[in-house]
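Final report, closing paragraph on structural work. Over the funding period we assembled a curated collection of sequence-structure pairs, and we close with a single example.
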Amino acid sequence: MMKHLTAAALAACLLSLAPAASAAVPAPPPHATAEAAPTFAKAADRHTAQEIRAFLRWFYDGTGPSPYQRERWTSDYLKAKQAETPDHDVILCAQNEPVAIEVGPVTVAQSAGFGWATVTTSWAGGARQTLTAYVALDSDPIELHDVVCG
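Its predicted structure, as stored:
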């Protein structure tokens, strides 16, 4: 004895075989804009060196953070430090915008609760300058906690 599928059952069967509509839409490229929010989740209770380096590379992104990144991804401490010296950019240790920024390897000190990296800025005319960028290991979400120039 042969059973026949109803039109509704056939449609339901075919729909279950089709890929989901969301899968057909390509995902936007990572960091499509400076305002794209990073997805830096802590691996455990504390950020790892790899997470911190990925964050700093995204944050500094070649020539420095956007106003949105400065507002959203910096600590209250760093914002207060910037407010005290409005004529000097405490995040870049400068008054101008560099032509390039490189983030070095990250060191993590679990006992101190911080990870840091040397950040090198390059300027028109070939000058180079370094700063140290600090991230609190337990920050949630991850954020730039402090910068020390020189």
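The beta strands are 100-109, 114-122, 128-136, 144-149. The chain is about 30% helix and 25% strand. We thank the funder for supporting this effort.
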